[in-house]
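Section: Multi-chain targets

For targets with more than one molecule, the full set of components is provided together so that the structure can be written out for the assembly as a whole rather than chain by chain. Components appear in the order listed by the source. The example entry contains two components.
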Amino acid sequence: GAVVSQHPSRVICKSGTSVKIECRSLDFQATTMFWYRQFPKQSLMLMATSNEGSKATYEQGVEKDKFLINHASLTLSTLTVTSAHPEDSSFYICSARGQTNEQFFGPGTRLTVL
Amino acid sequence: AQSVTQLDSQVPVFEEAPVELRCNYSSSVSVYLFWYVQYPNQGLQLLLKYLSGSTLVKGINGFEAEFNKSQTSFHLRKPSVHISDTAEYFCAYSGGSNYKLTFGKGTLLTVNP
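Its structure, encoded as tokens over all components, is:
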């Protein structure tokens, strides 16, 4: 089956620093990648949709200058949380879609901002 | 507005008992429906999906779901659960050409010995 990886799996950073999270489709080309945020004991909230080679489309209420998304290739998308603050602490999950309408999810990245 | 509702936030059951996790959707267009499972601190794993065709969909780990258009439901069932089925289950739908998924709030299934 299709495999999506995320790196790092966990990251702890100081307030004010920036953190980059990578999402890779390992065995297929992802025309579209999605970034989700999940708070404890809550559902996944879509943050943005990114298509290879074009700017990401952000959901309402998501600050595009704070959550920078780059989808430079068909197998890699990155999410950079800029000037992170404690309220940005969350579980970030990416997914990737190839030629079908199914999304394959990464294992998630736990971000803790001190 | 399009949405998906999971009626139960928590479902406790005993091992080997049957279980049904309920999901209702609200959409005026054709939808694709999914059930995902999430174990603690992990990503989502697809259990099953309904795209078209037969309304009874069989998935992994012995789960199945039935698409009911008249009742706008897509309930997940398993005839006999195991301790290892303890996890969070999310119902989701995709209704547009952008393939965006909208998730329900999740149901925590707890299987007790």
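The radius of gyration of chain B is 13 Å.
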